[in-house]
Known about the structure:
CATH class of the largest domain: Alpha Beta
Structural class: alpha/beta
Bound molecules: zinc ion
Distance between the termini: 49 Å
Number of helices: 11
Amino acid sequence: MDETKTCVLCNRTINHDEGIGVVDTYRADCPVCGRYILNGLGSIGLRSMSKDDKAMLSAYVRDVNEFGSGECRLLDFDEQQMSDIIEQYKKKSLEDKVDNFIKYLMKKTEYFGQEIEIHFTTDYPITYSKNVTEFENIFSHVKQQEFIECDMTKNEVQYPKLSVKGWEKYEEIKQSGPLSSKCFVAMSCRDDLRDAYDKGIKKAVEEAGYQPIFIEREEHNEKICDLIISKIRECKFLVADVTGQRQNVYYEAGFAHGLDRQVIWTCKKDDIENAHFDTRQYNHILWETPEDLRKKLLNRIKATII
Ligand SMILES: [Zn+2]
């Protein structure tokens, strides 16, 4: 079908693999949005969205690709979750846009003074821009602020390098994460996982000196609400236990990534085969008992949450 040969979000020509796992499901590799997984029905829904909304989803997918799990499972999100994402991305301020661009440049930079290749036509989602023109303007602004040095020409491709001021700005961005002592816990509310929370995650988070935030809800309620979003915002980091493969766990972890919060992934050992992404990209904590989970998680928090 021709339909899957252009990106549903940005209309670019994409590479795609048909029928991965489930019939009608495909993996897209878009030069603008990055990699995502979608099915036929989801494609139809997305194509009918407004251009601006699609641009925000494109920014989200690119974010997940650059700074999150690497591949975005768009097919897991329902309409409400899609519109939550779009709303969150519409709210990004000019400062958020500039910060994300600097973060991206730093991610690509291997040594001070290195020039990084930037394509206006494919890299605009990194600044949460609606289009190429917005990115060009943000680029000029970042240059005026002297965060980058670049011989500005009219070319579509630019080679900026982070200046001393840009490196300093990056340090500021890194440290501007909340000084919060809270940890959001995203996991299934299934009864048989109760002990994993009470005796595993809760204890480990507390022993590490943080306050766990776990919002109990109906097991089948996958809706993300304002309360959850605001709680995630308040947290310094998030623990995502994917045992049971609840959609909301992936979704909340995705939000935390978008807000630049660190995410620690955990999963019961006998359930890891079912995890929704390429686990090789992630260093999951695999646990067998709540006590095992407590010990491993405590070590991980101590080692990685600064
Ligand atoms: Zn795209």
